[in-house]
Give the backbone structure.
Amino acid sequence: MDTIIRNGLVSGPTGPESYDILIVGGKIKAVGTDLDPEGREVIDARGCLVVPGGVDVHTHFDLQAGTHRAADDFLTGTVAAACGGTTTIVDHMAFGPKGCSLRHQEEAYHGLADKKAVIDYGFHGVLQHVDDKVLRDLQEMAMDGIPSFKAYMTYDFRLSDKDILRVMETVKKAGGVLAVHAEEHDKIENLRKTFVEEGKTEAIYHAMSRPNQTESEAVGRLIRLSERAGWPNLYLVHISARESLEEVRRARGKGAMNIFVETCTQYLMLTEDRYSLKDGESLKYVMSPPLRKQEDIDALWKGIADGEVQVVGTDHCPFFFEEKLMFGSGDFTKCPNGGPGAEERMRLLFSEGVMKQRISLQRFIEVTSLNPARIMGLYPEKGTLEPGADADICIINPERSGTFSAETLHGAAGYTLYEGLEYTGEVELVMQRGKVIVKDGVFLGQRGDGRYLKRRVPSV
Ligand code: URP
Ligand code: ZN
Ligand code: ZN
């Protein structure tokens, strides 16, 4: 049956305006006033904001990192994301066996996701070494549904500058997007080694071994490589340091408008004070890059408001607390890196951003769905409520408030980085391709109902 969402507040050129949305065959058919409800299922959204379902292009479901495996797989992770108003994810595949082809992980990830994901999903290709075959595969994959690729400047499979440059040149040719985890590996390793030798093994030294400059210098280096490669589409993942934004500003000043900045909810909300929590609680916040200072948080919010930051993702990558404690208690360098966030993202951004008037509703939509969809080749099916788009919809009631608690969230790790934090604006209903998958916090979707998304080369 066709559905009509009536009287919801939709973002318009001059602010939210009341509209009806007609959904036919899982697609948005029309957005207008006084659409005829006769013979259609009616959802009354009066007083609520109706926004595109969230698009989170930075998750790590089922990640195998060395001997550690992320707590959420594609079932629990996508259920959590859905309950928080997200209807599409693009997951960063994990590294495969040493020397494996670019295609190897793609196949493996279909095995992990296809019968489990409850929302629509895609994968970023992961680069762990570079040779002619990898570069040929990259070009082929870019034309075959995977136009974005991820490179690391730190960790075991980091790429050299020479290899990053080769990848950039190929990505430029293919028209894809290169996503990079930018941190100065050698500087970080030296600091880590020194701290451990000095017996400084508590969680705060995780942050101190990765100071702001280890991120911003890597961003600067990357931008110089990018210039040499003729400015391919460059996507900076999980930017946390205010100095990194200055690097990007300088590059954009030279006309490089296809550098995209992603930050993540934790870098907008939490400071490094968390590393002083007792009883091992600090280890929940061990992630890379680490949490920073209030000045960085302020700069990132301003960056969103000004349009300098295009995307807010989550880097959702939680490990069980017991595992963090077991490995990280005596030595922060052994603690598995990462935390949860996919379920909290939309409400956090809405409450802390829109309700606290740091950002407009339109900006909220841009960073949570429209921009990630555009940059990652999912627009116009995703990220918008325009006619023709998939009816992926999130209805938020700004009159309702709540408190984040592991008790009511759905992730497998069993904790949230925001325990006890109050928010204003509740996700009341989530729809994927016209089907209600979440209502009043209850998941109504089906395992395996998420569709694999063959993405296109973005036109950004
Ligand atoms: O600490 C983090 N961020 N873990 C996930 C992997 C990554 O670097 O994005
Ligand atoms: Zn990363
Ligand atoms: Zn990540």
